[in-house]
Design a protein that fits this description.
The protein has 11 helices and 13 strands. It is an alpha/beta fold and about 290 residues long. The strands form 4 sheets. A 7-stranded mixed β-sheet has the order 5-4-1-6-11-8-12. A two-stranded antiparallel sheet has the order 2-3. It has a two-stranded antiparallel ribbon with strand order 7-13.
């Protein structure tokens, strides 16, 4: 297994999606034909990561375990970590410190959806850097709603600001963070913001101060979708449906990725498909096993 490990931050209360998240974690909601968490999980799998920490609320953890199990069915290993209270994205690195054990990591937010032909190459290039951190910039119309990164032509970050009134660029920082093994220590040095949270921007700023922060730009061939509102949740589901029906491929299918990466064999894929044979999802897995 690679020395780099993965983190999915799937905690939080999901209050912006009430009442549908009143009794169910946002990351367990269906996004077209799969649970939402399958999509960030697939991002980490495409990056070649097989050891992943899944950070959840105490109340929701049993449901995540029931869905994802220990990961061995996909040739992976999952560790579950409880987040008692959501206190900022940087808190994830403190909670996952023992799991990481000094290893570098790639963290994906559990409600972010990414799609693009060259996504695996982009992730693996970022993960190949021996030190420092890498964020992914995505051009948006309303950068003031996000963390904003500005950079030079070589991809060296010039500034990073959280929800600036006057953004220095129109590139938002997406929910993927590729950081070296110093991330937990940097997170511990962060003081709570006015919102009472440990801001990920402060961790990234510490990398920037040391000249160790890079940016990878996601161009026109990539889609980055948030699911923070009822409308954007529906839009993301419709996007997945459109691509899957048009191209006859699945987005965010762990079984397919595990098989293509050689983590499971054909017999294991066929066994997994038996769970879903009454659905198009299961029939798709059979087609993959048949070489279709």
């Amino acid at each position: 297994m690679t020395d780099r490990k993965g983190i999915i931050l799937a905690g939080g209360s999901g209050t912006r999606l009430y009442p549908i998240t009143h009794s169910l974690s946002k990351q367990l909601l269906p996004l077209y034909d799969k649970p939402m968490i399958y999509y960030p999980l697939s991002v980490l799998m495409l990056a070649g990561l097989r050891e992943i920490a899944i950070i959840t609320t105490p109340e929701d953890q049993d449901q995540f375990r029931r869905l994802l199990r220990d990961g061995s069915q996909w040739g992976m290993r999952f560790e579950y970590i409880t987040q008692a209270r959501p206190e900022g994205l940087a808190q994830a690195y403190i909670l996952a410190e023992d799991f990481l054990g000094g290893a570098a990591s790639t963290m994906v937010l559990g409600d972010n959806i990414f799609y693009g032909h060259d996504l695996p190459q982009l992730l693996k290039r970022a993960g190949s850097r021996p030190e420092g951190g890498t964020v992914f910039g995505y051009q948006v119309r309303d950068p003031e709603r996000y963390g904003v990164v500005s950079f030079d032509r070589e991809g060296t970050v010039l500034s990073i600001e959280e929800k600036p009134a006057k953004p220095r660029s129109n590139f938002a920082v997406t929910g993927i963070y590729v950081l070296d093994g110093s991330a937990p220590a940097r997170a511990r040095a962060v003081r709570p913001s006015e919102r009472g949270e440990l801001e990920i921007t402060e961790v990234l700023t510490s990398y920037l101060s040391d000249g160790l922060l890079n940016v990878e730009r996601m161009g026109r061939g990539f889609a980055w979708l948030d699911t923070g509102t009822h409308a954007s949740l529906l839009d993301a589901g419709n996007f997945v449906r459109m691509i899957e029906e048009r191209q006859n491929v699945k987005i965010g299918c762990p079984e397919e990725i595990a098989f293509s990466e050689g983590w499971i064999d054909e017999a294991a894929l066929r066994t997994l498909s038996q769970l879903y044979l009454k659905t198009e999802y299961g029939q798709y897995l059979v087609r993959i096993a048949d070489g279709g």
